[in-house]
Design goal:
The complex is a heterotrimer. Chain A has a two-stranded antiparallel sheet with strand order 1-4. Chain A is mostly helical. In chain A, 72% of the residues lie in helices and 2% in strands. Chain B is α/β, with parallel strands linked by helices. A six-stranded mixed beta sheet of chain B has the order 6-7-8-3-9-10, sandwiched between helices. In chain B, strands 2-1-4-5 form a four-stranded antiparallel beta sheet, with helices on one face. The N terminus of chain B is likely disordered. Chain C has a single domain, classed as ABC transporter involved in vitamin B12 uptake, BtuC (Orthogonal Bundle), CATH 1.10.3470. Chain C is built from twelve helices and two strands; from the N terminus they run ααααββαααααααα. The model of chain C has no long low-confidence stretch (mean pLDDT 87). Classes of the chains: A mainly alpha, B alpha/beta, C mainly alpha. At the A-B interface, α1, α7, α8, α9 and α10 of A face α3, α4, α5 and α6 of B.
Chain lengths: 350, 267, 296
Amino acid sequence: MGLPCGTFNAEYREDMAILRTRTHWGLAIAAIVLLFTLPSYLSNTWLIVANFIGIWIVAALGLSLLTGYCGQISLGQAGFMAAGAFSCAALVNYGGLSYWPALIVAAFFTGGIGLIFGIPSLRVKGFYLAIITLAAHFIILFVILHIPALQGTMGLNIAPPHIGSVTFDSHHNFFYLIMGVVIIMTIITKNIVRTKPGRAFIAIRDNDLAAEMMGVDVFRYKLIAFFICAVYAGLAGGLMLGYITHAHIDEYPFMDSVWCLGFLIVGGLGSVAGTIMGVVFLRVFSQLTYMYLAPLATLLMPAGMGTAGFGIGPFTYGLIIILFLIFEPRGLYHRWEIFKSWYRLWPFAY
Amino acid sequence: MERGKLLDNSNKIKLHADDIDLTFGGVRALMGVSLEIREGEILALIGPNGAGKTCMINCIDGFYRPQKGRIYFEDKEITHLAPHKIAEMGISRTFQNLALYTGMSTLENLMAARHAKLKYGTLKGAIYFGWAHNEEIEHRKRVEDIIDLLDLEPMRKKPVGALPYGQRKKVELGRALALEPRLLLLDEPMAGMNVEEKEDMARYILDVHDMQGTTILLVEHDMGLVMDIAERIVALDFGQKIAEGSPAEIKEDEKVLAAYLGKPKEG
Amino acid sequence: MNTLQICLWGLQIGAIYGLIALAFVLVYKATKVINFAQGSIVMLTIYLCHAVISLGTFPIWAGLLLSAGVAIGLGLAINRLFMHPLVGQPLIAPVMVTIALLGLIQGLCIMVWGDIGGCRNFDPLGISAGALHIGQIVLLKPHTLGFIVTLVLFGLCALFFKYAKLGLGMRATAEDHQVAKVLGVPVMFVFAAVWALATLISLVAGFILGSMNGLELGIWQIGIKAIAVAIIGGLDSIPGALIAGLMVGVLEQLAGAYIDPYIGGGLMDVFPLIIMCIIIYFRPYGLFGLERIERV
């Protein structure tokens, strides 16, 4: 990490700060202003894309803590999102809660489900655990389908959430809500990773045996990681429910769990900024694919019936992730770092 | 603190391992080994390869569970405690084959070892401002002292995965020290180093011992260094204790000589 | 329906699970890569086989040989394109590649053969509708064929690993890549061979699955069950894959027959996963897996 020329850290407080100089503060504020005026420049199509990006950022940040930082691969993020969405919908429909408390309760309830699937981490690790989370996805969806009150095949509806007289029923209004949540969750995630729990996560990822012997209660912190990851997923699921005002298991297919992992790979494992970059990159890309490549594929492929357009999405997603793994395994974030260090010295490249 | 002052309580026993048996399947790695480490001393554990030295360290810090025997640290039994509990009680170690957190910088590695000393929990960490921030700064100061002691300043912010071998060994010693151990287990801290690095490392170990009065258990193959640094030596061979005493006594011990050089032919 | 009948069907279904798990275990044993795309590969090989057979009018055996060649080519291509560049990288990278492949292959199949919801007939041997009647018991022909083929393939595998030079080389590679290489085992060749073998086995499994139920784009989901079976068997144990497959098949059919009516169906889809979660908790290395001692 380089500082601008002539700036030195004289205190630990300064060394630990994320926004160090006035330029940093200025840029951060400018970015937030830009973000919140975005709806005025974006067309409705792209506003919808932006909203889904926001929801997926929340889910991916949670997965980033579990997989990117704590090293426990999870293939069940969409399943946990489904749990969040359905528990939130059930709390609103049957529990008589309004949306906001239901959202919080649902998030923590999902965290509890995450804990259950984290318990095997006491005995198993690595890819075995990944397969348990894969099972988690299918088991959660199975349970949802078989609780009659949740009407898994039909789905549950709720009214659009509102604060006072402001109802979040348009893409425009919901954008502000989602981006607010995204900013809060990003700050929380960043704080977690730069303090005690974050270091414990990385220690477990890099060398779990050493971590245990250097005083980290590995099992406890793995459970904490599972819990936090599932809370984020529950929150994302609840937001999804609030946005589309509908909870249905078809919204949470297994492949979404896989793509969620793909966001991390493309962005860069073990980096908060990278996670956000990964989600933005892949979601924008998939929208472009849908708009431009899908019609082309439909023309070229003989299947008729126009299904080629459905296939091109997963195909290109998978291809991009593989290309990143082979050619830039450290993800977009690494590219960004290279760019930053180049920019810092520009125009004197030495 | 002067060395003379430490000698006052040199009879107090810091760690007592009693009759330890450790087996893997059919292999008996340790057979009835007893060990006493006195307050404030540097005890060296020597023996040929496969003698069970590392196994002994692994038993003490809870990584292996001995089938038989008990271990007491400061008069409290630690035989069946989880490794992280033992670390919290003040036993810290380095590893024979490096076991650093390669994705973190030197500074973060040391801060990660402060884990047990940091009081705030996950929630306060997530909020950060206030408690966590202040505590981080306070502990950062302690960590910087260690960085200072071990001359690690130039690599403070470098990821340890990118450091050369000798430096990583130093970072590992630093990480062990960041735990503020009352008993430090050093598993071949000088393995694979050149003479100069070895001397540096020996200096650091003596510094730590003299300045903080840390009790040290040292496993090392370089006999010259062991004889220089250690106050007492225990020799193991094939999972059994064969000798114990001052460096001078060990040098003359027939069993030790036989273990290292082979038995002299009779007749 | 009586219990014996259900158990026999379970054994036959379970044999297919075991067969797919075998492909999975082979790849894992030699390369230590958990192939999450196994189910997709089964789907792709069988769709390719279907395409090859419907190319023209040549005898069935020629079509099958050609499909086998295509499947082997597919395995070699996956190894060369996606696995080879990642040899020596942390294991997480090739495993992530297989996870991405899962999506890529699905997308490919949807693009080329997609008529969503549609099911194609696939019956080159003309056995789909046939059944054997032994007393009260009814055995469907494709299931029975699958059971026999599975047993034969497992037998061949066992002999191969015990006696063939390449088989021994694969076992050596499984233990330690670098040591094997130093001792003269052509590790890269072994990787390629294993992938080719795995796709070939996938083709056989897919062929039988297709003869049972026709072709549809949900076939890949059997890969999830196969992973569960492989884990239960212990990931690196070939007999484990067979035994676990048979066990899971029987338990799943029993659960389907006796528990499903009470909870409204669908249990068969997740039952193997539930068994896996329970077994993995009590025996982290599966039923027949090799337990490794951790060192520092």
